[in-house]
Design brief:
Layout: H1 10-21, H2 24-30, H3 33-38, H4 46-57, H5 69-89, H6 97-111, H7 115-120, H8 132-149, H9 162-183, H10 188-217, H11 226-231, H12 236-247, H13 252-258, H14 264-280, H15 288-302, H16 306-321, H17 324-331, H18 335-339, H19 343-360, H20 362-371, H21 373-383, H22 390-406, H23 411-414, H24 422-428, H25 436-439
Helix pairs in contact: 1-5, 1-6, 4-5, 4-9, 5-6, 5-9, 6-8, 6-9, 9-10, 10-12, 10-14, 10-15, 13-15, 14-15, 14-16, 16-19, 21-24
């Protein structure tokens, strides 16, 4: 079948375009503060990689979204490449274009299941952009990406697996890149482990989404079509298991218990994302309660606490609505509507955790707040119900990251979605974080702006 990607070198051209536009200093400066903090260790890229993968999955703003299926796929692949470029920034290696191109070709091939071609690439001594092994890896990756992800999205009457399949591939890409950066080479045994792990993620994803469909529809399951199995990139035996699991899914708590611990939050994100997309597509309101019960049962079986549930909800909302969703929440009472009936309970439990951490580090926190007067002022505004501007939110996040060095548990407020908790945290912490001159503007002016109120 003819596609808009008839040129077999389209992926190589896309990589070249990204490399030409890549300004190392500008790209490093553009990394979010929380990524730079998480990536401060050049030997352990896992924390930063998790943040980069999560951010790479967030929806674009409406005006930035591609208009055609072909451009949607190109954008997905551009974001694969950008993730790999961002991960390379954290190593602080000299930028050599031919070497980086060879690395990207090898990583894409390995994550696409073309491990043999990936291992033929030698990023340490690339022959330049015309190196045959690099070109073979790029062309094989291009074919695999087209087979699995074009056209993007899911056909009507099938399980909503496309978003999860993209996430699985991107998580696999990050694992391949981290393994290479750690060892200095691609290890065949490690690549096999990454492939098996991605197949486990995909199989559990199909089962969890099939279970959600059954719980909310009360009717025969949407089919897991052969085409969708191919899009998951599963081997023959694993595909049979995935088809059987989707046809007769276990209860949600059983799926949660069976999932390996690192996969559990990811599956909950996908459950919430599927629910959000079903609602956007016009699912009846009566489907909300069984969907919420399904997610609750899964979280209970997986042993995910309130903070993990909230984080999964935040990530699902960001993947569905993009960067603007949090700004809207700051301006009004939309939080409970998006996050469900258990919003109040979840946020209370999260804030209690933050409060306990602050109580145990009271002296360090008070010292930091005395030295950072602006943060106290902004916290007071948030606590009083005023929406912070984008620039004020940026300042609060940056200063909270500094505070997290003294009180690590406060990093939850600087993480993606954490700003949503700021007004609650500022009110519920066990002491006043801000001077009374800000919290109570009518107070006598003789009180020092830097004096904390006990």
């Amino acid at each position: 079948m003819a596609t808009p990607f008839n040129d077999r070198d389209w992926l190589g051209d896309l990589v070249d375009e990204a490399l030409r536009a890549h300004d190392v200093d500008a790209a490093r400066a553009a990394l979010p503060a929380e990524v730079r903090v998480a990536g401060s260790s050049r030997t352990d890229l896992v924390p930063a990689a998790r943040l980069l993968v999560a951010r790479s999955l967030h929806a674009l703003r409406p005006e930035e979204r591609p208009a055609t299926p072909a451009e949607c796929l190109r954008e997905e692949v551009r974001r694969h490449v950008q993730l790999l470029l961002d991960l390379s920034l954290l190593r602080h290696d000299p930028f050599v274009r031919a070497r980086r191109r060879a690395e990207i070709a090898a990583f894409l091939a390995a994550a696409s299941g073309e491990e043999a071609l990936a291992l033929e690439v030698t990023p340490e001594e690339p022959g330049g952009s015309s190196d045959r092994a690099v070109e073979r890896a790029l062309r094989a990756s291009a074919a695999a990406l087209l087979s699995r992800f074009h056209p993007p999205g899911d056909a009507p009457g099938t399980l909503p697996v496309h978003a999860g399949a993209v996430a699985v591939l991107r998580r696999r890409l990050a694992r391949v890149a981290i393994g290479f950066h750690r060892a200095g080479t691609l290890d065949p045994e490690a690549l096999a482990r990454h492939g098996a792990y991605a197949e486990a993620e995909s199989t559990l994803l199909a089962e969890a989404l099939a279970g959600l469909a059954l719980a909310t529809a009360g009717a025969p399951l949407p089919a897991l079509r052969p085409r969708q199995l191919a899009r998951l990139g599963l081997g023959r035996a694993t595909a049979r298991r995935a088809r059987a699991a989707a046809a007769a899914p276990r209860p949600p708590d059983a799926i949660g218990r069976a999932a390996p611990e690192p996969i559990r939050p990811f599956l909950l994100e996908q459950i919430f994302l599927a629910e959000l997309r079903a609602a956007a597509a016009g699912a009846p309101p009566e489907a909300h309660q069984p969907a919420a019960a399904y997610a609750e049962g899964y979280a209970r079986g997986a042993g995910l606490d309130a903070a993990a549930v909230l984080a999964a909800r935040v990530e699902a909302a960001a993947q569905e609505a993009g960067p603007g969703w949090l700004l809207a929440l700051d301006a009004g009472p939309a939080g409970p509507a998006i996050f469900g009936a258990d919003w109040e309970q979840v946020t209370d439990e999260v804030v209690e955790r933050v409060s306990a951490a602050v109580t145990g580090n009271l002296e360090a926190l008070v010292t930091e707040l005395r030295e950072t007067g602006e943060l106290g002022q902004l916290l007071a505004r948030a606590a009083s119900g005023h929406a912070l501007s984008a620039e004020e939110r940026r300042k609060v996040k940056a200063q909270l990251l500094d505070l997290a060095k003294a009180v690590p548990a406060l990093a939850i407020l600087a993480a993606p979605g954490g700003m949503l908790l700021l007004p609650l945290a500022a009110k519920l912490l066990p002491f006043s974080l801000v001077p009374s001159a800000w919290a109570k503007p009518a107070a006598p002016r003789a009180r020092s702006r830097r004096e904390p109120v006990g």
